Amino acid sequence: MHKNRLRLVGALAAVLVAGGMAAPAQAHDKQPTLADLAQRHGRYFGSATDNPELVDEPYKAVLGSEFDQITPGNGMKWYATEPQQGVFDWTAGDEIVNLARAHHQKVRGHTLVWHSQLPDWLTSKEWTAKDLRAVLKKHIQTEVRHYRGKVFAWDVVNEAFNEDGTYRETIFYKTLGPGYIADALRWAHQADPKVKLYLNDYNIEAIGAKSDAYYKLAKELKAQGVPLNGIGLQTHLALQYGYPTTLEDNLRRFSKLGLDTALTEVDIRMILPATEEKLAEQATWYADLTDACLAVRRCVGITIWDYTDKYSWIPAFFEGEGAALPYDEQLQPKPAYFAIRDALK
Ligand code: XIL
């Protein structure tokens, strides 16, 4: 009841801001940031960012002040870090790590093993299991070693399952079998015994076939002593598909396995144009997923997949959709921003 009222106040404030009747939130320097509020709960509140955006000074100002955790949107992916076999390039990832360190922000490493955004040299060849294993091990260990002490967590394997809970038939699965996941975790752990190791995926926010597959795998890996610390729920939601109401229960069942959880790539897209109603519903969803994370002790933090619609990946990947983030294209906070604040208060 109390929470709902606060949210209404937040939504009203947002309308006033939109109508030019009040200054935007970041104009009040003394207001606690999302990071400040999250820290009071022992959580972080982070944003992804990407190298091309880092020339935008107003963008960087909010990125550096409002958040206490950063994920590189692309800079640590295989195509970027090992563009030729055995030739490593840390330029993009390092730029983001250095920026984050300058703002005392922690960094999530994303991602070591994924079927997408692979370099051509890797995808254009037929590999024997022996050779691909060696390539995979070298990639993981070289990258994890390079960022040792600089990232607190790694998305070791990204998007390993299909919607029905079967293994995705990636080059790694097809060549190495399902054991590539345990191997990847073990190799990463050897290279940095302190970093938290995650499996990360989308459409695993609700309880269902795909999240069940993670639950089952995580349980097996734990039983076998494989170094797995957490499950990352990407949380790319869309208004037209409904809110995942079992999110909190789902987070809790992973906690009970002794795992951390994190909402790692949150955005809530909608079919454009954005209306006041849709933005209000989006705000409620952002508050609800924040509540869900706060309600489960081992949900360690929330990362939005960039913070502003100006740099969201959504319009380029989902035709006719967008407006997915808590700040608009002018870097002004939307109702979602105020709803997150209220939920964190
Ligand atoms: C996206 C980036 O944001 C885009 O810039 C890029 O073109 C494609 O990848 N799931 C993930 C992220 O794990 O790495 C993806 O990031 C979004 C979906």
UniProtKB/TrEMBL annotation:
Molecular function in Gene Ontology: endo-1,4-beta-xylanase activity
Name assigned to this protein: Beta-xylanase
Signal peptide: 1-27
Location of the GH10 domain: 31-343
Superkingdom per UniProt: Bacteria
GO terms (BP aspect): xylan catabolic process
EC number(s) from the headed UniProt entry: 3.2.1.8
Record key words, sorted: Carbohydrate metabolism, Glycosidase, Hydrolase, Polysaccharide degradation, Signal, Xylan degradation
InterPro entries referenced in this protein's UniProt entry, alphabetically: GH (IPR017853), GH10 (IPR044846), GH10_dom (IPR001000)
Homology family: Belongs to the glycosyl hydrolase 10 (cellulase F) family.
A Pfam family annotated for this UniProt entry: Glyco_hydro_10
Reaction equation(s) it catalyzes: Endohydrolysis of (1->4)-beta-D-xylosidic linkages in xylans
PANTHER family in alphabetical order: BETA-XYLANASE (PTHR31490:SF88), GLYCOSYL HYDROLASE (PTHR31490)
Root EC class: hydrolase
Coiled-coil zones: none
